[in-house]
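stage 2 :: seqdesign
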C-alpha cells in the first residue's frame, strides 16, 4: 500500500490513485490532492508535468460550480490550487460515459463493423466524428485497479450494482450535465464531444463527484472548421490529452507488456505543461495564474474551521 505524503488530524483513510492522492478525514470529508503526475495507457509516466494538477483541479472547480443547479456535488472548498475538500460519498461502481459524436472508442467499435456499443445501437451511414442524432450513454464498470470495462444499462441494473430507479436518475443527470457542458464549451468556440461523470450517494442524496469537463476526462473539438473538416474527411482539431498518447505511440509505447516508456526530456515536459495551460485558458476563457502548492502549510483542522464544516 502506498504511504501518504501527509498525515492530517482525524485522518481515517488514504488512497493513492494514478494522479490523485485522496485523504479521508473523520470518515466524513475527503481531501483530494490532484498531483502533477500524468498517466497514459493506464501507466503513470516517469516525470510529473508542472502545473497539471492546478489546471485539472481549477477546471473541475469552475465546472462543478457551473453545474450545481443541476445536481448537488461533493465540493465544499478549494483552499489550495491543486486541492479540493468535499463530502465523502459512497461511490456508484459505474462511470457514466456520454458521447455526442462518433469518435474514440465508439468510432473504433463502429469501424470494426459493430453497431451496438454498451447496449446502445448506433445508426448506419455515419462517418468518424459525426454527431449522433442524440447523445448516447455508454457506461463502464469502475475498476480500482486495471481497466474499466464496457457494460450496459441492462447489465448494471440486472447485476444490482445500481437500482433501476437510481440508474434512471443518473442517466437524467448525465444528459443534463452534458447539455450544460456543451453550452459552456460553445461559448468558448469549442465542442464538448464526449466525457464521463462519476456519482456517489450520501444520506440518501445523489452527488456528482470527482472532476468534470477537464481535458483528462473529456474530449473537445474546436467548433471553427468542424463542418469543413467533416465534409473533406479531415481530422478534427482536438483539445484533450490525446497529444500525449500520440507522442508515446510515435515513440513506440502503447502500454503493452515489454514496452518501455520513452525518455521525457525537459523540452517535452515543458511543452506538455504549456499545452495544459493552453487547454485551461481555452476551456475556461480565463487567464491561467501559476500558483504555489501550499498543502504542507495547511492541515485539515484549519480548513474545517475556516469553512465552518460541521
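stage 2 :: out
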Amino acid at each position: 500500500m502506498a504511504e501518504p505524503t501527509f498525515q492530517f488530524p482525524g485522518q481515517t483513510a488514504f488512497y493513492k490513485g494514478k494522479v490523485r492522492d485522496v485523504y479521508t478525514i473523520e470518515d466524513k470529508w475527503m481531501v483530494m490532492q490532484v498531483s502533477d503526475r500524468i498517466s497514459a495507457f493506464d501507466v503513470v509516466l516517469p516525470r510529473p508535468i508542472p502545473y497539471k494538477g492546478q489546471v485539472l483541479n481549477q477546471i473541475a472547480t469552475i465546472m462543478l460550480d457551473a453545474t450545481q443547479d443541476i445536481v448537488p456535488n461533493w465540493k465544499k472548498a478549494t483552499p489550495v490550487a491543486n486541492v479540493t475538500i468535499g463530502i465523502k460519498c459512497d461511490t456508484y461502481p459505474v462511470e457514466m460515459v456520454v458521447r455526442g459524436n462518433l469518435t474514440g472508442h465508439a468510432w473504433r467499435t463502429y469501424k470494426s463493423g459493430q453497431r451496438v456499443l454498451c447496449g446502445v445501437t448506433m445508426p448506419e451511414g455515419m462517418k468518424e466524428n459525426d454527431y449522433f442524432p442524440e447523445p448516447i450513454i455508454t457506461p463502464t464498470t469502475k475498476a480500482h485497479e486495471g481497466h474499466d470495462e464496457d457494460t450496459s444499462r441492462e447489465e448494471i441494473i440486472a447485476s444490482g450494482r445500481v437500482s433501476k430507479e437510481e440508474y434512471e436518475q443518473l442517466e437524467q443527470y448525465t444528459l443534463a450535465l452534458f447539455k450544460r457542458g456543451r453550452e459552456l464549451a460553445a461559448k468558448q468556440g469549442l465542442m464538448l464531444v464526449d466525457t464521463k461523470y462519476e456519482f456517489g450517494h450520501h444520506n440518501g442524496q445523489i452527488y456528482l463527484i470527482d472532476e468534470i469537463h477537464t481535458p483528462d476526462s473529456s474530449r473537445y473539438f474546436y467548433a471553427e472548421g468542424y463542418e469543413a473538416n467533416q465534409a473533406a474527411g479531415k481530422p478534427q482539431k482536438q483539445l484533450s490529452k490525446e497529444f500525449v498518447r500520440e507522442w508515446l505511440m510515435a515513440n513506440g509505447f502503447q502500454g503493452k507488456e515489454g514496452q518501455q516508456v520513452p525518455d521525457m526530456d525537459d523540452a517535452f515536459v515543458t511543452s506538455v505543461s504549456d499545452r495544459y495551460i493552453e487547454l485551461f485558458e481555452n476551456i475556461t476563457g480565463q487567464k491561467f495564474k501559476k500558483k504555489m502548492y501550499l498543502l504542507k502549510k495547511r492541515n485539515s483542522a484549519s480548513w474545517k474551521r475556516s469553512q465552518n464544516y460541521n
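stage 3 :: structure notes
- The CA atoms of residues 130 and 239 lie 17 Å apart.
- The longest helix spans residues 164-187.
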